[in-house]
Amino acid sequence: MPAMQHDNVSQVAELSSIKIESRQSSIRSIKQTRMSILDSVIFCALLCVLGGVSTASQGAINSNLGKYTGQGLSSTIVFCVGAVASCIYFLIEVRGRPPANLALMISKAPWWSWSGGVLGATFVIITILAIPKLGAGTTSAIIISSKLLFSCIIDHFGFFGVNKRKYTIWRGLGSIGLVGCVAIISQF
Questions:
Q1: What is the pLDDT of residues 5-28, one digit of tens each?
Q2: How far are the Cα atoms of 32, 60, 115, 142 from residue 100, in angstroms, in the given order?
Q3: How much is the pLDDT for 2?
Q4: Among 27, 34, 74, 154, who pairs with 159 as Cys (CB 3.0-4.6 Å)?
Q5: Which helix (H) or strand (E) holds 2?
């Protein structure tokens, strides 16, 4: 009888091991699929287009909300809704279980990593204030151009942990073109 129980226990352990390996394999497959999508240049470019459409719409929508709530409350509402959306994304990303070492990971972040929220609030407040005076097109053109110019500087010097990418003559010509685009968009 004990030998039979030992066989049953071993079969159960083997089945459990197979189920665990199968589950781990499925998780690896899902992660690989997700990573392969995010590794796609075309997919990331489409995400950037969606981001551009979102930020262009966001400024106009936030400015409109400011007409009804006041500019200060408008930016507060925007960030509260954004915080909820970010929390939902976080829970989806970690499948409802934050990493055990989350506090340690957060404590290792450089001091300037925490400034993103302040910079985001600055952006939202600026668009709420500028769009009624300049219009969505001119405001977006100025913001996008300054964003691209400063992004090239960030790339060139490797600020904020970004891999360095040289500011070439072609990037310089593109920068001049951006300034020209802002001038044209703001005049017509």
A1: 556 656 655 656 666 666 656 555
A2: 22, 40, 25, 43
A3: 55
A4: 154
A5: helix 2-38
- Kindly write down the DSSP assignment for every residue of 26-84, as one continuous string: HHHHHHHHHHHHHT-HHHHHHHHHHHHHHHHHHHHHHHHHHHHH-HHHHHHHHHHHHHH
Global pTM reads: 0.65
Six-digit token string for 28: 């690896």
Distance CA 126, CA 151 (A): 19
Q: CA–CA separation, 59 vs 82, rounded Å?
A: 14
- Nearest 5°: CA angle at 18, between 99 and 91? 25
Residue 98 has pLDDT above 60, yes or no: yes
